[in-house]
Specification:
Length: 322
Amino acid sequence: MSGPDSLPVEPDSLRVEPVETDEQVPTRATSSVRVGVVVLTMGKRPDDLARGIRSILDQRGVVTDVVCVGNGWDPATAEPALPAGVKTLHLPENLGIPAGRNRGVPLVTGEALFFLDDDAFLPSDTFLADGCRTLAERPEIGLIQPRVVDPTGRVSPRRWIPRIRKGDPAHSSNVFSCWEGAVLMPRVVFDATGGWADPFFYAHEGIELAWRVWDTGHVAWYAGDLEAGHPVIDPARHAYYYRLNARNRVWLARRNLPAVLVPFYVGSWTAIQVLRWARQPTALKAWFGGWRAGWREHPGERRPMRWRTIWRMTLAGRPPVV
């Protein structure tokens, strides 16, 4: 994959070179944009999966190339069968969420990539066209996370707005992490980041991807004007939630930060979690088990971000120390 300092050139229909200027960028047509779509599933939510894929195939104004990746499940055996034209990839073993998404990327073509979890869907049939238009008009954007809404009307969790000052969910802004269930990116930026963090399996891969987007010279963007549907689900329902949450927080620092900042980042989040779960000793015990594993186990590839990136993030409101 390309390094962050030498991004390849994209077609004029979706040019994505970083821009550090306030000048107006001319609008480009998006009707010819091809979007490679990776839908990830374990095959346990067939109705939701069908809804998500249908919402992709119903998109107008773009051409979609879709693959359904089965993590430990063969999508070719789906009942009912997946729509014609949807590719399938069977991963005999559940490789985890980030690795599953990465495995689907080589199977689709397009100037843009869109990642969709099987329990998410797109209420608007112009979502991808609108998102690609934003990428074309604002080439400094390297990742878009939409506003997430529960289809039954339940109040969305604050964590779905990935910024410290949450504010109005419809307000758009730069962000330094992302909710991973529906993510749109220029493909050249995704390639430059190195992709999703394979070793993480689950949790915090959206923070790393956003950090690496910033390190390419782009920004990660929360688009309050774009909407994805997703039910409100408690992430702590997974037995491994607390452990992987802590392990990956340590790995995030070890993989991406200059060595001098690693203890500051891990220390700040350790203090936050102790305060947050002080009255939940069982959760805190599991969390510290993952914290210790984060230091003992190998986190995979280390790509410390540039100090220039840290300065840009700081000026934008969030230095990577918390």
